[in-house]
Amino acid sequence: MSQKPYQITALPGDYIGPEIMAAGLRVLRAVTADQNFDYTVTEYPFGGAGIDAAGDPLPKETLAAAKASDAVLLAAIGGPKWDGAARTPETGLLEIRKALNLFANIRPTAISPVMQRYSPIKNEDPVDFVIVRELTSGIYFGTPRERTADYALDTMRYTASEIERVARVAFEMANRRHQHVTLVDKANVLATSKFWREVVGRVATQYPAVTLDYSYVDAAAMKIIANPAQFDVILTENLFGDILSDEAAQITGSLGTIPSMSSGANGPALYEPIHGSAPDIAGQGIANPFSMIKSVAMMLTNSFDRRDLAATINAAVDQSIATHIVTPDLGGSATTEEVTNAVIQSIQESRVSYEPNHV
Ligand SMILES: NC(=O)c1ccc[n+]([C@@H]2O[C@H](COP(=O)([O-])OP(=O)(O)OC[C@H]3O[C@@H](n4cnc5c(N)ncnc54)[C@H](O)[C@@H]3O)[C@@H](O)[C@H]2O)c1
Ligand SMILES: CC(C)[C@H](C(=O)O)[C@@H](O)C(=O)O
Ligand SMILES: [Mg+2]
């Protein structure tokens, strides 16, 4: 009996968002062709595009579709066109994360051998770590939040259960990797950070195979440049994770290479590049599509258990990098479309050579 097609909600968003979403969906089509993977993709307006289409960055239909789907692919939102809006594109992004309960945001940084030449730092040991960023609490969501003529106030607040559930994600991940978690905080100053240390320390006792150490966030920012190979899983709160993940991305050579997964206890996960809508390069056809293409690979592994298809995509991305078919952010001269074509061609060639009955 054939299974109902998977439903994927695609949110192209703004500026380079639609450019890289098109690349990601082309790769998804190519890698799933004849692979017994039946799916539908439906695009919905979100972010600035949501404001333009429906007067809201997160239109009701968009949220309903996202909730009802098996996975959500998001490209990027925001930009100067909507900076003065009453409800900004960024508000829509925070709302969809909260509405889908996406409390754990996984942002990997790995410098594969072919990427090494693009890295601005010298790495003697292999760099391969993951940032597990808390995504639905902390200073992004805390109340009170207010602004008067004389002062402005944001609130950083964490409950024990919010810390515990994301800590478990980090320890589970470390169990499957190199059994090490680094909690990044500012426990020399902040009450929330002191509390994170207590709660994470308790969770750690349930994972005896995993070692835990701590780093203040300022020192962690330095270590990501000085010796990134020391990290396996970095666990951190929302704002620190936002900042450190852009820094970590850049040691691969470009922010445009890093995908992410955001997930919760139940319901669909959301996959998106960690970067934004890059208004400075939008419309030129030169956005790096790797972050989106690798987000598609992360979706295939984590939402659909198709590690085989994800591996095919990642190998094709590496092939494109190895032959220096890359966009200008990585020092190349290829367009988004040329890079995407190269990745698709490499996927198709790998199929020919690995076809089981091929003689
Ligand atoms: N998840 C999201 O949708 C998300 C994430 C971050 C920022 N934003 C929004 O994006 C807008 C622009 O923000 P910003 O300029 O600070 O950050 P950005 O991440 O959009 O861009 C920072 C720099 O990186 C470059 N860059 C980013 N992605 C690239 C890619 N794929 N290929 C080549 N170069 C790339 C840009 O050209 C720019 O120079 C803002 O409105 C911001 O709020 C959205
Ligand atoms: C656009 C912004 C709200 C968002 C964040 O801070 O989470 C972005 O920087 C990200 O990293 O996804
Ligand atoms: Mg960010």
UniProtKB/TrEMBL annotation:
Enzyme class: oxidoreductase
Binding site for NAD(+): 276-288
A biological process from GO: L-leucine biosynthetic process
Gene3D superfamilies: Isopropylmalate Dehydrogenase
EC number: 1.1.1.85
Record-listed substrate binding positions: 97, 107, 133, 218
Pathway: Amino-acid biosynthesis; L-leucine biosynthesis; L-leucine from 3-methyl-2-oxobutanoate: step 3/4
Cofactor(s) the protein needs: Mg(2+); Mn(2+)
Keyword field contains Cytoplasm: yes
Taxonomic superkingdom: Bacteria
Stretches assigned to the Isopropylmalate dehydrogenase-like domain: 7-343
Gene Ontology molecular function, alphabetical: 3-isopropylmalate dehydrogenase activity; metal ion binding
Subcellular location: Cytoplasm
Cofactor note: Binds 1 Mg(2+) or Mn(2+) ion per subunit.
Catalytic activity: (2R,3S)-3-isopropylmalate + NAD(+) = 4-methyl-2-oxopentanoate + CO2 + NADH
Subunit and interaction comment: Homodimer.
Protein's name according to its UniProt entry: 3-isopropylmalate dehydrogenase
Organism encoding this protein: Secundilactobacillus kimchicus JCM 15530
GN (gene name): leuB
